[in-house]
Amino acid sequence: MSTPTAQEARESPEEGAIVIKTGPVRTSGYALKLRRAVNAAFRDLYKQGRLDPRRVNEVVTELNRVIYEVLVNQYRVPKEAVVNITVELEVGDEAPRVRDVSVEVWERDDILSNNATTDVKRKLGLAS
User: Fold this and answer.
1) End-to-end CA distance of the chain
2) How many CB atoms neighbour CB 70 within 10 A?
3) Average per-residue pLDDT for the chain
4) Residue 35: which H helix or E strand, with range?
5) Residues 53-105: tens digit of each pLDDT
6) Cβ of 81: how many Cβ atoms within 10 Å?
7) What's the angle, vertex CA 68, arms to CA 99 and CA 34, rounded to 5?
8) What angle do CA 5, 96, 36 make, to 5 degrees?
9) Contact 7, 23 (CB under 8 A)
10) Using an 8 Å Cβ cutoff, are 89 and 100 in contact?
11) Count H helices, E strands: the chain?
12) Alpha carbon of 74 to those of 77, 87, 111: distances in Å?
């Protein structure tokens, strides 16, 4: 996949903090997207030897575990739902520390989707 865009990873106004945004992604794919975005954001710090990639991935693994536990086990969010995860990471010695996190969840609404599709087709003169 591609490296994060400016929307997905940016330096925070606070020194030493990085904000990672997954962008909208299905619940079933958030963990991989978050891991890739974090590693892409820290690529230069890995090359400089300022961060240990194994330690960073331990932090990401724990973060993904907690997010999964809350989304899937606690709230039963379906894998088709769309989530947008934002994480603020403080860059420390060898590994980042989670400073803040935000999880937005959008669940599919079949009734609204069907009604919207029908109305758009009707307005475009398409058979429904």
Assistant:
1) 37
2) 12
3) 88
4) helix 30-41
5) 999 999 999 999 999 999 999 999 999 999 999 999 999 887 899 999 999 99
6) 17
7) 55
8) 35
9) yes
10) no
11) 4, 5
12) 8, 20, 25
104: exposed, middle or buried (Cβ count in 10 Å: 0-12, 13-18, 19+): exposed
- 17 vs 97: CA distance, rounded Å: 9
- For the whole prediction, is pTM greater than 0.90? no
Gap between the Cα atoms of 64 and 11, Å rounded: 21
Please tell me what DSSP assigns to residue 11: E
CA dist list (Å): 104 to 21, 46, 72: 11, 29, 14
Nearby residues of 52 by Cβ (< 8 Å), 6 or more positions away:
94, 95
Beta bridge partners of 91: 96
Question: Max alpha carbon distance in the chain (Å)?
Answer: 62
Domains and CATH numbers, the chain: 9-124 (3.30.470)
Q: Which among 32, 53, 41, 31 has a CA at the least distance from the CA of 8?
A: 41
40 Cβ neighbours under 8 A, 6+ residues apart:
3, 4, 8, 9
